[in-house]
Amino acid sequence: MTEASLKNRPGNHIRLRRIQKLIGERMLASKLSKPCFYIASRADVTELMVLRRKLSKSLGVKITSNAFFIRALALGAKKYPVMVSRPGEGINVGFAVSSPKGLVVPVIKAADEKTLAQIALEDKLLTEKARSNKLTLEDMEGETVALSNLGAYGIDFFLGIVPPPANTILAVGNVVRMLVPDGGRVVVRKIAGLSLAVDGRITDGVYAARFLDFITEQLREPQRLI
After folding, report:
1. Any idea what the CATH number is for the domain that residue 166 is in?
2. What's the rounded Cα separation, in Å, for the pair 97 and 131?
3. pLDDT tens, residue by residue, 125-173
4. CA-CA distance, 5 to 19, in Å (whole number)?
5. Does residue 193 lie within any of the structural domains?
6. DSSP letters of the chain?
7. What span, in angstroms and rounded, lies between the C-alpha atoms of 208 and 200?
8. Rounded to two decimals, what is the model's pTM?
9. Pick from 121, 107, 134: nearest CA to 64
């Protein structure tokens, strides 16, 4: 929508699409019903950024950083099952995608049972379907743990809203270069900001901190995620 088109609207009112209204209603319901707490960390993804390029060439599938985040989140949820809503339905990672009609959340089902390459391929296919408005209801059903990644938009850090079907959401920010002390010297490393929003009715801060620390360690040593 252009600035000119906004000026031509009476009162400059913008009519929300149906999906935008639905998302707003669901997020409001979540904020009103889930007493969340928030924790944050930083993940050193220097090796990850190098490895993903090598893997993309060797596997013949474009491995994005998002695939690593989904894989790490899924393995973390397997190790810390309280973070998973409806555990009997499996570890199904919903990840937010901006589509022409608004924000949509496709779901990679049984993500903990899939390889990094399989997740990368499914991530790519679902994202393409989302951006061409071709997602089916089945593509968006079954979310039990959530991910939101705004790194591509230059956002360093943010707090997510836990979607109604989930207990937690991992929010991932931009990868930035930072000076880090290393054995008496200072080196430049690539760091991603992570935050976790958790429904406080489900677990406590210590359990959630261990969960986030596990994810951070997996990202720091990405060979574990292959």
Report:
1. 3.30.559.10
2. 8
3. 999 999 999 999 999 999 999 999 999 999 999 999 999 999 999 999 9
4. 21
5. yes
6. --HHHHHTSGGG--PPPHHHHHHHHHHHHHHHH--EEEEEEEEE-HHHHHHHHHHHHHHSS---HHHHHHHHHHHHHHHSGGGSSSGGG---EEE-EEETTEEE--EETTGGGS-HHHHHHHHHHHHHHHHTT---TGGG----EEEEE-GGGT-----PPPPTT-SEEEEEEEEEEEEEEETTEEEEEEEEEEEEEEETTT--HHHHHHHHHHHHHHHHSGGGG-
7. 10
8. 0.90
9. 121
Amino acid letter for position 97: V
* Locus of tokens 């210590």: 206
**Does residue 15 lie within any of the structural domains?**
no
Q: Does residue 6 lie in a domain region?
A: no
Q: Which of 4-8, 25-29, 165-169, 179-183 has the lowest mean pLDDT?
A: 4-8
Measuring CA to CA, which residue among 169, 45, 64, 77 is closest to residue 127?
A: 64
Tokens of 20: 């935008």
Q: Give tens-digit pLDDT for 22-33.
A: 888 888 988 989
- Domain hosting 168: range is 35-225
Identify whether 29 is part of a domain.
no
Domain count, the chain: 1
**223: amino acid identity, one letter:** Q
